[in-house]
Structures
1.
Amino acid sequence: MLAENGYSATSLAAIADRLGVSKGVISYHFAGKAEVLNEVVRSVLSEAEAWMSPRVAGAASFTEALRLYIASNLAFLDTHRTEIFALTEVLSNARATPGVAETFSESHQAAIAALEALFTGGRKAGEFGDVAPRASAISLRAAIDAVSGLIREDPAFDLTGFGTDLATLYERASAR
Amino acid sequence: MLAENGYSATSLAAIADRLGVSKGVISYHFAGKAEVLNEVVRSVLSEAEAWMSPRVAGAASFTEALRLYIASNLAFLDTHRTEIFALTEVLSNARATPGVAETFSESHQAAIAALEALFTGGRKAGEFGDVAPRASAISLRAAIDAVSGLIREDPAFDLTGFGTDLATLYERASAR
DNA sequence: CTACTCTTTGGCCATGCGGTCAGAATCCAA
DNA sequence: TTGGATTCTGACCGCATGGCCAAAGAGTAG
């Protein structure tokens, strides 16, 4: 519902209606609307984590890890569009939903830290040049995060092509 | 009000109250709330345009243009935080406000197209290597757009440092 | 001073929201 | 079969929203 009709159209009444159930059921099982939305965020984030972890783990070098990270993240976005749209819809209105901002921020910080570690690791191993790890991590994550908006506007957007271009871009930027 | 208290707290009643004026005044001067919010978007976008244009125009090379583009854009974000926060607040809820999505999308497409032209120009002039113009344009804009969120979370975020790092990153990526 | 237009007021409306609750229905173990 | 616990219903509450409008007020040209 979030993905299809947006945040403001996703009222408790609308949710209950869609479930073919009375509104009170939601109140019975959840403390409130905020808890429902937080659960949406939590579940999508954990899905993403479960998808990416094993795919990046198999990298034999930092360069390969970078490629795998980008490719697997974009693949997740591609194959989980509804979830991603729902997530962004909730995040857009995070101010109206206590807890959501904190949950996501934590996860987002962790993602940036992981990428930063990848860049510093590559530098220490002599695989990368003197790239700025934090700025690279931030900007790469921003580029990936922007993709959800791109595929929303143009569902046919070439994710794979963008992924390889992005990987090449950061590979060159961090080359020795 | 948008920047301080967020979209959902910015009702017509709250706006009128802040102006020390009756609610009907807004209805008298605007067709509806959507028109008010569209005006916010329109005005911030045109402010940004007015700020950036002259600053980028003076570039003597594509490399310099790239640096100036990034630096001036970040300087605008830095010095117009309230406007930027207000803008993002409206954009976050674009689905609830007809017209906003279209206005912004148009401006955003134009910005990406301009950056793409910068990269292709640099290539044709032999200044840049075989960088992917579109992917570079998209990812660079994403990196810059993400800054509004960064300074919201951490007002002391080092924008200048990030700007030079970002410029260096894209310079290296597009080097011959 | 008058007469007309423009602007503002303050109360009103219908609507939809999140949330509550008494009571009905259902489930399930003893 | 029974009886207590769990789950669900549908009506209801208070509240805030965007919008509307008759009437009062302010401004201004002749």
2.
Amino acid sequence: MFQGEYTNNMDDKGRINIPAPFRDVLQKSYAEPIVIIARDPQNPCLRVYPQQEWKRLLAKVGARPSNDRIVQAFKRTVISSAQEYSPDKQGRVLIPQNLRDYAGVGKSTVFAGSLDTFEIWDANAWDTQLASSLALLQNQDLDF
Amino acid sequence: MFQGEYTNNMDDKGRINIPAPFRDVLQKSYAEPIVIIARDPQNPCLRVYPQQEWKRLLAKVGARPSNDRIVQAFKRTVISSAQEYSPDKQGRVLIPQNLRDYAGVGKSTVFAGSLDTFEIWDANAWDTQLASSLALLQNQDLDF
DNA sequence: ATAAATTACCCACAATTACCCACTATGCGC
DNA sequence: GCGCATAGTGGGTAATTGTGGGTAATTTAT
């Protein structure tokens, strides 16, 4: 389970270090360092999947009629952008330019755990998102 | 059951000592010193869960539709911030910077029992919160 | 085919964190 | 009041994690 929030810097070459706790989860729960990075269709961030979770997603999409407009849009935005990456010896991955642009990631980036997957945000975008999420929850009657 | 209010100091490295009575509860009722620390979405404080209680919360969240806006906001604020910690030999945990910022904790911090969980407050924030909680109760017709 | 650019791989340093030990303060029993 | 036990605090050291950068390999363009 990916949990926790970590801030790491992208270097000049476009590489970012996957936080060690996340690498541990990949190693222990999935026995593979390989991840799939794709656009998140509903937020200006990237979503990172362990191979297994990605396959599960593909299976779900495959179960839907392929002429469905939503499915088509999903394929175009998410699946087309997805690529496999294996981290280098230091645990870093190179984020390609198109994905960097999509999420607007600058130097300071935030990794946010989201259980089966985790997200990569530009630090500023994360802050504003966090503020609005908190505002939304403020007057809610949460039963958990 | 976590009860009572204790004041402890955070040291320069960002570590705070979990009060001994709380450590006892963790040991006796949960048989595990490990805790999960996360943002409290509705108050400027951190909430500390024994592993079991955290799992219970995750189960509740998982039972809700994941496209629910509230659920999403909850994941971003609470789950993404959550981290597991096992106290060091002296019973201390290191609070990461982002959580320290969120709760605005300075040197003097308050631990407040909250039955299944407990809270960590900045001492000043705790005082003001306490005052307004008391004010709220002032003219209530309490049947307990 | 050659040159330029990009990417992968490796090494080294810096910063942070985990772990351990020692000291101080406080409460409790005698 | 004195000593003992427990709780809380401070700090040093070693290991881990994060960051920067060089060089070789690969790809792309000319």
